[in-house]
Amino acid sequence: MSDPKPARRARAALFWAPFAVFALLGTLWSLASPVFSVPDENAHATKAIAQVRGQVIGYTLPDVKHIVVDLPDGYQYPPNMLCFARQPDVPASCGAELGDIEGDDRFNTWVGAYNPVYYYLVGWPSLIFDGNASVYAMRIASSLLGAALLAWAFLAAASGARSRWMPLGVAFAAAPMSMYLIGAVNPQGAEIAAAVAVWAGVLRLLETFRDPVDRLALTRTWLWAGVTVASIVLVTSRALGPLWLVAIVGLCFVASGWQPVRRLFTTASSWWWLAAIAAGGLFSIGWTLAGGSLSNQAEASDAPLVNATFLHGFAYVLRTTPVYVHQAVGHFGWFDATLPVWAYWLFIAAFALVVVLAFIATRRRSVIALAAVVLAALLVPALVQGYSVHQTGIIWQGRYGLFLYLGITIVAAWLLSRDAPALGYLAPRAAWVGASLLAGFGVLAFALVMVRYVIGGQAPLGQMLSDPQWQPPLGWPVLVAAYALASLALVALVGGTARAVARRERDLDAVSDAAADTAAEAEAPARG
User: Which of 88, 164, 345, 464 could form a disulfide with 457, with the two C-beta atoms 3.0–4.6 Å apart?
Assistant: First the structure.
């Protein structure tokens, strides 16, 4: 029997190395973003601060539209906290700090009735720190949560018998918008990380019901455990989490085919895990229905197309899809830190490298499955917004669809790994190239967002050195240099893992071929 220690060490490396890289990228975004510069972060952070002190939902007041939460000493909310929001030429230096004595000791939060699970996971540092320091600490807690989920996704993705393209497929989760949200106090960061883990984990889990796996692969029990945890985080992160889980799992079923799906549901050991996921989903649905976070009727001044029909909402979102994709890749802040169009080409090249190749090189059925994922990324937002437009108006933003957009690259990489063994020799090279493009895009985005907040969008670039108006913790030069180093580590992680996976697969193929030859030689005398 082979020694299991090398396999355990390999699995540990495939978790802790990506955990370190993802945690560093997320933490650097946590420090680089001015407090509450991330969309809706003020509402989420104040809810977390109040919730960990016992105020799980808050209360209502006459003539106040949203739920109100009380803020303890050291957390007073000043009225000019977000003086730079939606003002791209105004640096972040104008804002007051959380805890200013002239601030309000209550906050009118529109997320007061949201599911409490995420806020407990990230809100506890506010019991140790106060003011702006508490927000940075909660952000780092969110970064660590997201890094753990993404590291598990990387481990699951790279541990299968056919995984050459998977490190690059999962690497898109390190794109700057994903890490920006993961490094903020916003449950969408946890939603994105959990969705990536579900995509990678379910695809790999389905393989265990179809193909034998090598000794480096995670066992079915470990895969079920990871998928269950990620699913529960996903369904409890936001109100539509249960719907997102159904969409992701359904698309994974389409990609995998019917046989492994049938075996999954007819295997008794699966039922306990499915029951745990169902319990998490039912809790989330029950909380949402009881709290009414999806039942409030918007006013005409709140959003476009309030009280419009399904077809109006559906058509509007479908027409606006290019804008939403643009937002999902490079609209930071309160839509006041937008990347220039030329910067997107690095990301587009990396995306096309995986997705276009998957459409060209895989089987017809796989092409149809990948097309279904792409179509879902286009239609699901339109269907959801069309259904709710009469009540909410058009409130969809590009970042809401990231869980679907990232699924495209993961499924494309999984199909390439399964269906295109003849192109396996390209996978390590593509991983180095694709990861380098993603890393370059990430560093560029990080630096440009820093410029926007340090001196404002229209100030001369030389002012970054001569007269910076705002400085993040540690200073912007240190953070930009650290992000560049972390991005290099991402390239080394993705490229090195793809090369190691390719080497492992070649060794396994050689062993399989030798075993087949031995069996054929043994059968030859019997035939004679």
Answer: 88
